[in-house]
Amino acid sequence: MPDLPRVPIGEWAAAFVRFLVREMSAFFDFIRRILETSIGWLETALTWPHPLLFALLAGVLGFWLRGWRFGGFSLLAFLLIQSMGFWNSTMDTLALVLVATILAVAIGVPTGIMAARNHLLGAAVRPVLDLMQTLPVFVYLIPAVLLFGTGTPPGLVATLVFAIPPGVRLTALGIRQVDPEVVEAARAFGATNNQVLTRVQIPLAMPTIMQGVNQVIMLALSMVVVAGMIGAGGLGEDVFRGITRLQIGLGVESGLAVVIIAIFLDRITSFMKDRAAPDE
User: Rounded to an integer, what distance in angstroms lies between the CA atom of residue 185 and that of residue 175?
Assistant: First the structure.
C-alpha cells in the first residue's frame, strides 16, 4: 500500500506560533505585565495576614458555611501547611488558582450562555472544547513559554486554557435544561429576552453553573502543579522538585498541601452550589 502524503500539521502550528512571537511580541508583553501585576497583588493580599490569623479566618469561614467539623478541619489543615513550611508556596498557588478561575469564569460563562442560545455557535464551540480538554496538558506549556517566557504568566495562561471548557459546557447545559414551559410563560407575561435570561434562565441554571465553577477550580489546581515545570512557582514547583530529586518527603508534603487546598475550595463551591439550588 503506498504511503499517504504527510499532512504537516506540526509545522503549520509551529509557523503560526513563530508568527505570533515575531509580529505580536509587544501585545504578549503587555498581557504578561497585566497577569504578573494581578497575581502579585493577590499574593500580597493573601500573605499580608499572619498565617495563624489566616488559618483562624479559614476556620471561621468553614464553620459559618458548613458547621464545626469543616471549620475545625480548615483551621487544622492550614496550621498543618504552616508547620510543614509551605505557607508562601500555598499562597502563591492559591493566588494563581483564584486568578485563573476568575478569568475562566469571566470567559466561560458568557460563552456558555451564547452557545446555549445560538445552536450554530454551540456547534462551533463544541469541537474547540473537545480539543482543549483532550489535548495533553503538557502541549499547552510549549506555546505558552514561547509567547510569555518562563515564570507565572505562561503557567496562568496554560491553566486558563485547560480550565475553561467545563465552565462553558455546564453553563450551556444549565441554560438548555431550563423548562421551556417556564421560559414561554415568562415571554407570555411580556418579558424581554434579557429579562428571560437574567430573571429566569440564569437563576434556574445557577446550580449547574456553580458545578461548572467547581470543576474549573479543580482543573486549575491540577494544571497549576503541571505548570510548576516552567517556573510558575508555588506548590507545583515544590512537587516538581520532589519528583526530579527523588525527595519523597518533599513530594508527599507539598502534594498534601495541594490536597488541602483542593478540599477547602471544593467544599466552599459545593456549599455555593447547594445554596443556589431552588427550594423544593
Answer: 16
pLDDT digits (tens, 9 = 90+) for 232-250: 778 888 888 888 888 888 8
Residue 66, Cβ density class (10 Å: 0-12 exposed, 13-18 middle, ≥19 buried): middle
Q: What is the reported pTM?
A: 0.85
Supply φ then ψ for residue 160, to 5 degrees. Answer: -65, -45
Place of cell 492559591: 94
pLDDT digits (tens, 9 = 90+) for 117-147: 888 888 888 888 888 888 877 777 778 888 8
The radius of gyration computed from the CA coordinates of the chain, to the nearest angstrom, equals 21
Comparing CA positions, the residue from 144, 125, 165 lying closest to residue 35 is 144
Widest distance between CA atoms in the chain = 71
- Cβ atoms of 152 and 197 within 8 Å: the answer is no
b/e per residue 135-155 (b: at least 16 CB within 10 A): eebeebbebbbebbeebbbbb
pLDDT value of residue 76: 92
Q: Give the residue among 257, 273, 233, 237 at the shortest CA–CA distance from 83.
A: 257
Candidates 149, 143, 180; CA nearest to 161 is 143
- SS3 for 76? helix
CA dihedral 263→241→101→107, nearest 10 degrees, is -150
pLDDT at 56: 92
- Give the pLDDT of residue 129: 87
CB-count exposure of residue 116 (10 Å: 0-12, 13-18, 19+): buried
